[in-house]
Design a protein that fits this description.
Elements (H helix, E strand, L loop, with lengths): L2 H13 L12 E3 L9 H11 L2 E6 L4 H5 L2 H9 L4 E5 L8 H8 L4 E5 L8 E6 L3 E7 L5 H6 L4 E7 L3 H15 L2 E2 L2 H10 L17 E2 L2 E2 L3 H15 L4 E6 L5 H12 L4 E5 L2 H15 L6 E4 L10 E5 H4 L2 H4 L9 E4 L8 H9 L4 E6 L10 H4 L4 E5 L1 H6 L6 E7 L2 E2 L2 E2 L6 H4 L2 H14 L8 E5 L2 H13 L4 E3 L6 H12 L5 E4 L14 E5 L5 H9 L11 E7 L7 H7 L6 H9 L9 E4 L1 H13 L5 H15 L5 H7 L4 H5 L5 H7 L9 H14 L6 H10 L4 E2 L1 H10 L6 H11 L6 H6 L6 E4 L2 E4 L1 H6 L3 H17 L14 E2 L1 H7 L8 H4 L2 E4 L2 E9 L14 E2 L4 E5 L9 H7 L5 E9 L6 E9 L5 E6 L5 E11 L5 H8 L2
Parallel strand pairs: 2-3, 3-4, 11-16, 11-17, 12-14, 12-15, 13-14, 15-16, 18-25, 18-26, 21-23, 21-24, 22-23, 24-25, 32-35
Antiparallel strand pairs: 1-7, 2-5, 4-8, 5-6, 6-7, 9-10, 19-20, 27-29, 28-29, 30-36, 31-32, 33-34, 34-38, 35-36, 36-38, 37-38
Keywords: ATP-binding, Helicase, Hydrolase, Nucleotide-binding
EC number: 3.1.4.4, 3.6.4.-
Protein name: DEAD/DEAH box helicase
């Protein structure tokens, strides 16, 4: 359908009758809804990405607002697309730094209006044969794009529409009367610029909210204090606080010491710099005389103080530790306690016997095998990770940019690249160009640069310095004094960058850091968050942190969406979603990937072996360490450590996996395990809840169920209870549904049998339930499946945009028997149901394809589709598609075979009858065969981010 028809349809839908089908050109009211992760920012980014040119007229611009569309602008520049922006100096809101940032965008032409009271907020986008424009209350600021309560309307028009002509003519008039932005203009503006008092100043953000002259706990601290007090009331002598860097752990500890009121208190940390700052923070909370506070370190021996702050290096020495009786301190706090596996920490902790021991860390998960959780009796008093901390506004917002690393002769930097490639002159110029483009707060960099190896870091620091960008290199070979000296120079603005490898991952506090640059493979989500966290402490010197991640050809790129989203389950579907839709980031933070960088991540996700035995064992033992017991499927689900389906299907069942790693706590027979195997592979996903309800009933007190009983049971649980569904559930649980190799694989795995017209437990299930370990495993799997079922629409056969295998589609669609995948191919149909399976990117070796099918998602509402070959206009399925009144047609699609055997459900479709035609196509061996071409209309418009993911090559 051409744009004229689409627009006419949308105008009817938007302004005349909402029940008329709309299109992607529908008018849309846009209101920021953070609770739904729905923002104007999403729409603005989508419009920028897909336009042919653009024209913005916005009064107020901030650097973070501009940052939110920089990757999209960079991608447009790669395609030779540019745009214009008209702004002003109205009220002095726009500072000189944002004008500098605007000037750095090569495909953006900027002019300054001199019109009095310039206060417009309009965004105009040119398409191939129509325009889209957004007009409302939102300026180009992150607050307006994500958080503020703003009203904006998106409208579309053909280029000869009256309203769009008025808008274009008006913008051209204003443009002709405005002044071009250049360096000379910015310099003059900066000389006289004064920040207006009406502009909100950066928050005074130490770690604590201040009320008058008193420091009061923030929301996180109040909850943690309550939990710590309740923990001690149970008789516990130890507690662990897990909290993201910069969320106020030190003040939290001081508040807890105040509520505990110890006679003597000991604070242990590994660096003297942290010690001095901690002492100052505690004094603000606890008050008292200076003599109450003392430091025990290499340079100070104030051991008589009531509140003693000690470095581990000093207090672990016998001549100091043994000065104190074991019960001398009532309260001992170990900061950065993930280091407690070291001998010095163990020596001190084992010696002292306080009434309460508190450990604080941002990263309790260790790679050295030491169990921090065990050290604190598994008492986690409070835990707040990155996403929650952002939601609570405890951290400085960050603008993350996933940028493609340097490319030469079609090759991008990878793990095996040699030093010469990493420090090549062209790469250095490329890095500097990108760093300048994405910038930082007020364009005054105070940055940490994490490199892949020492020789690279040292050479790059030298090369940056030679180009006038003052930089130094630090490694583990530099002592504490040298590190602190360079940190001070960085914060004072004497140098701009510190290049390093891993020494600043943790345990260093540099509040003024406003830029993090990542020039290395992501080794783990833990290290990624540690390095990101170096810049997230709030400070009056910055409003946001810029994170520039140069993404090369690294196998571990899949860890990037895991780390940013906090979803470490290993579910590839989630990883893909968290790459193409980054609206999960809370508050004023934003995540953006350049288009090529996204493709690098998708490629890494597709090739990652996330279900290898070694990977699953690692996740298993990490969770076991935390729980102090063998974890089961529900534990994996609730902790989000691992997708339970990965571990449940690796060795036929979770029991099989436990046996393989020698962690099973009981034994079940091979026949019993057949039941677990079937449940794990077919029902654990929770796609249809009816089977789960039946099994729970039979495992309980119910001995038999009639068809009517089944219907009542389903209705009681809010589930569909038609005869078709009841019969399908029976077919599945008797294994009668399965055919071919699947039926052989599940032999003996029936959960039910039919006796005298009644559903009863199968003989095998009755026998298995006599084994308590089997019953425990089954109930664990059942509870996990019930949790999984929460993401599915129980009122419909399929849930939009969830993934299904072909046999899942037939099972949920109530087919009487499974068909082998090869026999289904691209589609199958029966009893009024027509299921289509489409692979969008087929590749040269598309399995079984004799013809180069050109199935295409045309837009968010339309799909071009071809039948199997040979087919003619009078073939049986084509007759159905030409007269589909009594049929429901479902469309499932996957991007490519690299994504596995699962297909996304795109919804119901309707054939556009006038598009159905027979065409002839050439086969691989040179023959010609007839197929039928047609266009489907989707009942539900594809979300734009999902549409782009599916259609981006």
């Amino acid at each position: 359908m051409n744009s004229s028809k689409l627009l006419a349809q949308s105008l009817k839908h938007g302004f005349i009758d909402k029940d008329i089908a709309g299109s992607q050109l529908d008018p849309k009211l846009i209101v920021n809804q953070p609770e739904k992760q729905d923002f104007l920012l999403n729409t603005l980014q989508e419009e920028v990405e897909s336009c042919r040119s653009f024209f913005f007229s916005v009064a107020f611009i901030t650097q973070d607002g501009l940052n939110s569309i920089k990757t999209q602008l960079a991608d447009l520049a790669q395609r030779g697309i540019s745009g214009r922006l008209l702004t002003s100096t109205y009220l002095g809101f726009n500072d000189p730094f944002v004008f500098e940032s605007l000037l750095r965008i090569p495909n953006l032409d900027v002019r300054i209006s001199s019109k009095n009271g310039f206060h417009s907020k309009g965004y105009l986008f040119e398409r191939s044969d129509y325009y889209t424009f957004i007009i409302g209350s939102s300026n180009l600021t992150m607050s307006a794009l994500k958080l503020n309560y703003e009203w904006n309307i998106r409208l579309s028009s053909l280029d000869y529409g009256e309203v769009i002509l008025q808008a274009k003519n008006h913008l051209e008039d204003e443009w002709s009367q405005s002044k071009p932005l250049d360096s000379e203009w910015i310099q003059k503006y900066a000389e006289t610029y004064q920040q207006p008092k009406t502009v909100v100043q950066p928050d005074m953000i130490e770690d604590e909210p201040v009320l008058g002259e008193y420091i009061v706990p923030n929301k996180m601290q109040k909850m943690a204090l309550k939990n710590l007090q309740e923990l001690r009331e149970t008789g516990a002598k130890k507690g662990l606080v897990i909290s993201a860097t910069g969320t106020g752990k030190t003040y939290l500890a001081a508040f807890d010491v105040a509520q505990f009121a110890p006679r003597r208190f000991l604070f242990i940390v590994h660096r003297e710099q942290i010690l001095k700052k901690a002492k100052e923070s505690f004094k603000k909370i606890l008050g008292g005389n200076d003599s109450d506070y003392g430091i025990l370190s290499g340079n100070s021996k104030e051991t008589e103080a009531k509140y003693l702050f000690a470095t581990i290096q000093t207090i672990s020495k016998d001549n100091y530790l043994e000065q104190f009786p074991q019960d001398y301190f009532d309260y001992v706090l170990v900061d950065e306690v993930h280091k407690a596996g070291a001998g010095s920490y163990q020596k001190v902790i084992n010696y002292l016997d306080p009434k309460f021991l508190l450990g604080m860390t941002a990263t309790p998960e260790r790679t050295d095998g030491f169990n921090i959780f065990e050290l604190f009796d598994y008492n986690i008093a409070y835990e707040i990770r990155l996403q929650e901390a952002l939601e609570e506004d405890l951290l400085c917002p960050f603008n993350y940019f996933g940028v493609t690393d340097y490319e030469k002769n079609g090759q991008i930097i990878e793990t095996t690249s040699d030093l010469a490639e990493l420090v090549e002159e062209e790469r250095v110029r490329y890095l500097i160009e990108k760093i300048n483009y994405y910038g930082c707060y007020q364009n005054d960099a105070k940055g940490l640069v994490f490199c892949s190896r020492k020789d690279e870091a040292k050479k790059l620091a030298d090369l940056f310095s030679s180009k006038g960008i003052r930089s130094v290199y630090l490694s583990g070979e530099d002592d504490i004094d040298e590190r602190e000296k360079q940190i001070e120079r960085l914060e004072d603005g004497i140098i701009s960058y510190i290049f390093t490898v891993d020494i600043f991952n943790e345990g260093v506090d540099i509040p003024k850091i406003n830029q993090i640059i990542l020039l290395r493979n992501t080794q783990s989500s833990i290290i990624f968050i540690q390095q990101l966290g170096r810049g997230l402490r709030k400070d009056p010197s910055k409003k946001f942190v810029t994170v520039i991640d140069f993404i090369g050809n690294y196998r571990n790129n899949y860890m990037i969406p895991m780390a940013l989203s906090g979803d470490v389950s290993g579910n590839k579907n989630n990883m893909r979603k968290d790459t193409f839709d980054t609206s999960y980031i809370s508050g004023l933070s934003a995540v953006n990937f350049e288009a090529v960088a996204k493709e690098k991540i998708y490629s890494a996700i597709d090739s990652a072996k996330l279900d290898s035995v070694s990977a699953l064992k690692k996740a298993f033992f990490q969770l076991k360490m935390r729980l102090n017991r063998v974890p089961y499927l529900l534990d994996f689900k609730e902790s989000n450590v691992l997708d339970p389906q990965l571990v449940a299907t690796k060795e036929s069942s979770y029991y099989g996996f436990l046996v393989k790693i020698h962690e099973n706590e009981g034994t079940i027979s091979e026949a019993d395990n057949q039941l677990m195997k079937f449940f794990s592979k077919e029902l654990l996903s929770g796609m249809r809840k009816q089977e789960l309800v039946v099994i729970r009933a039979l495992v309980g007190e119910i001995n038999q169920l009639s068809t009517a009983d089944l219907q009542s049971l389903f209705i009681k649980n809010g589930l569909t209870a038609t005869d078709e569904v009841v019969n399908s559930v029976i077919n599945v649980l008797t294994i009668d549904f399965y055919a071919g190799g699947q039926a052989k694989s599940y032999h003996g795995a029936a959960f039910i049998q039919i006796e005298n017209g009644q559903v009863i437990s199968s003989a095998q299930l009755k026998t298995a339930l006599n084994n308590e370990y089997f019953k425990f495993l089954l109930m664990d799997a059942l509870k996990t499946a019930e949790k999984n079922s929460e993401k599915y629409d129980i009122q419909n056969k399929y849930t939009l945009y969830q993934k299904y295998k072909r046999r899942d589609v037939l099972r949920l669609g109530c087919w009487k028997q499974q068909m082998v995948d090869q026999n289904i191919g691209g589609y199958t149909y029966k009893d009024g149901k027509f299921a289509i399976f489409m692979t969008i990117e087929k590749g040269e070796d598309f399995k079984g394809a004799q013809i180069a099918y050109e199935d295409t998602i045309l837009d968010q509402n339309k799909v071009l589709y071809y039948t199997k070959a040979p087919r003619h206009i009078d073939s049986p399925e084509v007759k159905i598609l030409r007269r589909p009144e009594n049929w429901v047609i479902y469309l499932f699609a996957k991007k490519s075979d690299d994504e596995g055997k699962d297909f996304y459900f795109l919804g119901q479709v309707t054939p556009e009858i006038n598009t159905i035609k027979e065409v002839v196509k050439e086969t691989k061996d040179g023959d010609r065969k007839s197929v039928v071409e047609l266009i489907f209309s989707l009942k539900d418009q594809l979300p734009s981010t999902f549409f782009k993911y599916l259609t981006t090559h």
